[in-house]
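I'd like us to work through together how a protein chain folds, taking it slowly. To get us started, please write out a protein record for me. Go ahead whenever you are ready, and we will take it from there:
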Amino acid sequence: MAKISELLAKLEMDELMEAVQQELDNGTDPLEILKEGEAGMIKVGELFSAGEYFVSDLMMSGEMFKEVGEMLEPHLAGKTGEILGKVVLGTVEGDIHDIGKDLVYVMLKSGGFDVIDVGVDAKPEVFVNALKESGAPILALSCLLTTAYDSISNTVKAVEEAGLRDQVKIIIGGGPTDESVVRYTGADAVGDDAQSAVRLCKEML
């Protein structure tokens, strides 16, 4: 199993997908496979922080993790096909980190949510348009840079100006975010990790 986290951390796409399929064939719990994937993503983040990986490596690992998530999706808890609700997800303007966002994406999908991922460095109007088009009642904003707090505020304001604020719950997440950032930005809640993001979304429906 540790092989999965290692392959993801080394960005070995083909071998990773083969290893995931092998674990599924062996009857391994898909949630355990997902946890191994998360461990690999954390390792990628550490390599990036150490200057050994670049933005392109971060983006590639995110795509790989998404592929793993899509492969596992039919085997996970949300496999009944019942959609709990829609969530618009993205990393705010001025921030290109997608590891945390991609973890939340996979966990929400596996938890039975329909997730509209608008990507990274997303302007407030991108989130607003996605909310209008999807009718999603939850907006999940990822932010790993303290310099992007104002982008969260601007996104919350844009949702208000669009007349959607009373219909949409806004949760935030990412390394430096906490309750003080919730108060500063006007969001509704903060998630400490991907699991708590799923719990919050379920509570808010």
